[in-house]
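User: what does the whole thing look like in 3D?
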Amino acid sequence: MADVTHYGPARLLPGDQIAITTNPDTEPFWQAAKEGRLTACQCAQCGAFRMPPTPYCPECQSREKNWPTLPGTATVFSFAICNKNPKNGEDYVYVPVVVDLDGAPGARLNANVTGCDAEDVHIGMKVAVEWTPIQDGWVLPNFRAMTAGA
Amino acid sequence: MAWANQDKTAIVGVGATDYYVRGKSWPRTINDMAGEAILNACADAGISITDIDGIAYYSGAGAGYLDKFDTASLMETLGMPHVSFSASLTSGGGGCPGAIGLATAGLMNEDAKYMVTLMALQQLPQHRLGVVFGASAPNPENSFLQPSGLVGPGHLMSVLARRHMHLYGTTQDAFGEVVMATRANTHNRPKAVRKAPLSKEEYDASVMLADPLRRLDFCLETDGAVAVITTTMDRAKDCRHKPAVVHACAHGGTREWGRAFAWMGMPDPHFASSGHKFTADRVWAQSGLSARDMDVALIYDHFSPRVLMQHEHYGICEKGEGNDYVLSGKLRYDPATGGGVNGGTPVNTHGGNLNEAYIIGMTHIVEGVEQVRGTAINQVRDAEFALVSGGPASLPVSSLILRSA
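Assistant: Here's the predicted 3D structure for the full assembly of 555 residues, as structure tokens:
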């Protein structure tokens, strides 16, 4: 691979630019986020996790759900490094990450990571949830590197 | 077991407009361009527009990303007297060659006699695919993706490419070779948007849009329309050109690829893949053929890493070996011999979405037809079988094998 580009600090996208919507299947996730509680949709019958939340468990077709409180830590599964704010095109270094959630095998979230330089983000890196207020009073789970530069 | 509809239908006409850089087709309208492509395809087939009595769409009958085709509008626009088949595959560009299977289904059901499959694309500023994901209003499902700033297909593909690099040691050099190898096929193509040969230095200097992907790893943004006509073999014999026989065709996919690539829940090894293994295995089973039997491969190339990953799913090389296969020059076409390089199968002899034009996959079907007719600009010598792929994208993706008559 070619020489590593130096991007500098990985920033979170500004929360005031971000809006979400919910439906009855997904709203418990976002309500928990408002309480500072990271959860994932778990089948109450067979225990399998799924994200985003859907009406049926794809493993056993049950409609019963649990919303357990997770440890709030995660592992980077993959990522990209982006350098433009998608809302206005201005220079802005952010790192979208796909993370595997601890305590919820098979459940992933897509978020931003901060607390390190963008070029130091790597697959397998441990991160911890960090809450970002967004539009309409909702709160978004993002992540922070647990050991800077690790 | 061989496919029941093997060699029962053929593509007999191909037609297109010029290819325009994004937005430059205005003041032409979508139906203006679609009409030209359909009429050109009829002329190529040697039939009248009034013979067309079926339309087999893909991408939910999409015309680009925000417009939709309407069969009645096309009938009124072009003077088609009646239509007895009007149907579409769902989702997006992944269904492109699969629409020939849809056409075949309608033909074998005797619903219609001459089926058109088409795409027209006009990327006015508000219609740019590159921003469609991010510009779309939040909904309960994309609220788990959009806030991360993964707003375009290139961002999503970048995340998948990164995982492939992590698992298999794949390099950006290989992505560059995909672009350079297929760029080498456009210098003699009058309609191609990018014709200048591409050096490694130029590739390396291309701006990084979503690390690890550079601007040149992203396909072109173009306007234009392409249409193809499929009919039964008995009718095909009366058409102007040698039929491009539909030898195998499949669309679909598995749950492990699932809602990719706007989902990111795919387990390994599906995450760092093209999502094509299911339809690849189906066309090989339908035909009794394997990748080694293909004389040319027209591989959907909206992003360069996807070409590499499809090689692994079609069995052109082994899983995880795409990097070395690509870097050994095996995608290249050798005009001196009319064959491959270093034992490889020539890929995207038309330049593909990366270099010629991006009409959401249709140009790959046209090139497959011209190759098995023996009339391609970069003709593979004695080409008997052409593989055409659509996607990776949201399911269905699709696969087509064309055979020379």
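In plain terms: Helices of chain A lie at 27-34. The first strand of chain A starts at residue 41 and ends at 43.
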